[in-house]
């Protein structure tokens, strides 16, 4: 299992601008057998992950501007529910970092979070957010779950 940062660097190495990839990643990918160097190019040794990496590389910027969520320069705020907007804004602000289930619960249910929190409700809310994100064009792996710990988005 590759971390989001490793996926980003592997995608960049094989399909993007390999000059932007840190030498430590290049050496690691070669050492574990994920890539081989042919001339000045780096080739994946496992073709099955090619589409996943290309999808990862094509993720466009998602950001919060003036309390509105923009994806590929289009305002997506109205495409999401109020709760989805709250969660996504928090995830974007901490992109690449894990946000605990407890912190997400506080975002959703605010001061009553402890009384209203349930694993089922959290999972359903995140599931709906994931469906909304794929509808606006983000890849399925954009919102990651760390089982029992929390959630993060790739940066």
Q: Summarize this, please?
A:
With 155 residues, the chain is an alpha+beta fold. 46% of the residues lie in helices and 18% in strands. The protein folds into two domains: 4-57, no CATH class; 62-153, Arc Repressor Mutant, subunit A, CATH 1.10.10.
Strand and helix layout:
Elements: H1 4-15, H2 23-31, E1 35-38, E2 41-44, H3 50-57, E3 62-65, E4 68-71, E5 74-75, H4 82-93, E6 99-100, H5 101-109, H6 113-116, H7 119-135, E7 143-146, E8 150-153
Antiparallel strand pairs: 1-2, 3-4, 4-5, 6-8, 7-8
Helix pairs in contact: 1-3, 4-7
Can you walk through the features of this model?
There is one protein chain. By secondary structure, the protein is an alpha+beta fold. The protein has helices spanning 4-15, 23-31, 50-57, 82-93, 101-109, 113-116, 119-135, and strands spanning 35-38, 41-44, 62-65, 68-71, 74-75, 99-100, 143-146, 150-153. It contains 7 helices and 8 strands. The strands form 3 sheets. A 3-stranded antiparallel beta sheet has the order 3-4-5, covered by helices on one side. A hairpin with a 2-residue loop joins strand 4 (68-71) and strand 5 (74-75). The longest helix has 17 residues, at 119-135. The two termini are 17 Å apart. The mean pLDDT is 86.
């Amino acid at each position: 299992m590759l971390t989001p940062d490793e996926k980003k660097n592997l995608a960049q190495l094989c399909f993007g601008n390999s000059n932007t990839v840190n030498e430590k990643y290049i050496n690691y990918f070669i050492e574990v057998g994920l890539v081989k160097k042919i001339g000045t190019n780096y080739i994946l040794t496992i073709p099955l992950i090619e589409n996943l990496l290309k999808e990862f590389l094509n993720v466009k910027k998602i950001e919060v501007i003036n309390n509105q969520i923009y994806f590929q320069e289009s305002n997506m705020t109205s495409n999401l529910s109020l709760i989805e907007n709250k969660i996504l804004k928090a995830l974007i602000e901490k992109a690449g970092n894990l946000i605990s289930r407890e912190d997400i619960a506080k975002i959703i249910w605010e001061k009553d979070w402890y009384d209203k929190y349930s694993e089922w409700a959290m999972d359903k809310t995140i599931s709906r957010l994931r469906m909304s994100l794929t509808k606006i064009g983000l890849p399925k792996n954009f919102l990651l779950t760390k089982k029992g710990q929390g959630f993060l988005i790739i940066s």
